[in-house]
Write a structure and sequence with these properties.
Strand content: 5-15%
Radius of gyration: 22 Å
Number of helices: 11
Amino acid sequence: MTDAAELRTRTRELLAAHPPAGTEPLDFLKARFDAGLAWVHYPVGLGGLDVPRSLQAVVDAELAAAGAPDNDPRRIGIGLGMAAPTVLRYGTEEQKRRFLRPLWVGEEVWCQLFSEPGAGSDLAALGTRAVRDGDDWVVDGQKVWTSSAHLARWAILIARTDPGLPKHQGISYFICDMTGPGVEVRPLRQITGEAEFNEVFLTGVRIPDAHRLGEIGEGWKVAQTTLMNERVSIGGMRIPREGGMIGPVARAWRDRPELRTHDLHQRLLTLWVEAEVARLTGERLRQQLVAGQPGPEGSGMKLAFARLNQEISGLEVELLDQDGLLYSDWTMRRPELVDFTGRDAGYRYLRSKGNSIEGGTSEVLLNIVAERVLGLPAEPRNDKDVAWKDLAR
């Protein structure tokens, strides 16, 4: 069994063979992946060494101390947090070897083609169709709120393959080539002025059956792996104390004493404590992941993340008084990543409004926590056993 000491040795051997100062970042990342130091808990040959996930911190600390390049996880977060664990669990050996390495090193950006104009909170009601044609599937439909679609090489896609079955059945899961014929990406301008999200139109898009993940008709089960990992990646990110949204507010409080009031002080103290509790809870959740796949607890973390971000950003705008009303730039652009802490208070306030929608709406996540964590009775449903084609739309 590889232990922490051996991992340090392996990491130092990587650094000696590929000194960060003299190696192109992409070449270093490829060497790191091949050495099994990308995801240490992944299988040998797929970026890992089959060791506990908790040992990743040993590798990361050594590389950070040496100034080694990272793979810019904010830019490729959908690939790292959603596509990779799904490919690992349900992909064929050929799929794993084709997709995981370029995904991790950042050569290929991924996006998520799940939500639709008529199927957001009720995702299982999706209407995008995939029809079998020999060794291919022909896909037609529309997806929406697709982060990074304008940058993506690949997409994880769920589509309806049998409309004669109830809505949670008859769905299959595919890997879609975003550069292929019939894929059209259009920007969606947001309240921030940017078009970070997109809508995607699929017209006669051909996907080889070799790019299907899981069995035909089991796409909803496969999608649950993606969604549970998505919520952990959004709500359970590893950050230092006073990291994330609470950091800028705390700094403004210390640097500008003239803005302080008793009421703002009490609210800041409450939110600081809640942010620290959420941070420590996220750390515990990541430790639990060592034992297996993420569960519904990630939904609770994502709920807390959304609420805290919105309350903290609102407090920051109030604290800054007139300066909090300013917004630096309404330029229409299509960014490569979301940067909460590197922007101004106005951006944080506006952008955080989307936190309670993306990655599962807070209302849906409350149901998940109620039913799967607290064990409360499920809401009554009259569409459970009705064929999708017979549902009112």
